[in-house]
Structures are given as structure tokens and as C-alpha cells.
Amino acid sequence: MKVTFNEVQDVLENYKSAVYDTNVERFLAAYAPEMHIYDCWSSFESKGISPMKANVEEWFNGLRADGISLIVDFNDLAVEENLNLAFVYCAVTFAAHDIESGEKLRQITNRFTFGLRKENDSWLIIHQHSSLPIHVETGMGLFDSAKIPS
What we know:
The chain is an alpha+beta fold.
């Protein structure tokens, strides 16, 4: 699927809508073929589009099987860009809703960094890193940013 992302914000909007629609091809259209991901889920690291596609298919199939729509919001967004490179830093909230009732079931917030490169006048994600804050005493990931000790 060939899509042109003229602005960095277009990549983020595509991410949100592709997740909501569970559209694997549209989701992957924002990633460079040689992309590299450090993730706090699944395999923890992914290089190249093929392993990423398998992870995204599993994720989206699970959402559909569970009758869940996932609403993505980018918070505390900072974008640094020049002509050919951009970095995005943000907190990403994934809110799961029951498709039939619309009831919000749960949500988590991850910290994300995206590295993007402009190729043929289109922005593509070449690196993505997601993480969770870790509670110092327990070593457990903190899924609710409201409960992060200050």
C-alpha cells in the first residue's frame, strides 16, 4: 500500500486510525521496510517489516476476536524535525472499548519515541521505542501514569 505522509502529524493520524480500524496494511504503510523497533510487548525487538507485520496481525486479530476497538491518543507530544529527519516524543494512551456497547474497558499509557526519515517526499517511521516507567521498589511496569510516584 503506497501512501504519502506529507507531514509528521499525518503519520500519527494514520497510526491512530489504522489501529482503530485494525487495518494492518494501512498501519504498516507508515513504516520503512528496514525499520527497527524496541517494544515493551511481544518480542521486545523487531527488525524489518515482516516480523512487524506478524506482530501487528496478531495484535489486530486479538482485538477483533475480543470485540474490542482501540482508541489511541497522543499526549505530551513534542516533534523535532528538519528537512529529512524527525523525532516524536509522547505518551500514547491505548483505550479499549467494547465494540457493541461502547463501554470503556481499560486503558494503558506507554511512552513512545518515533524516529522518522523523509523518503520521496513522504515521512516514514524508521525507529520506534516504547516503554513503561518501572516502580523502583517492585521492579514492575507502571501501566497507569496517574499512579506514578512523584
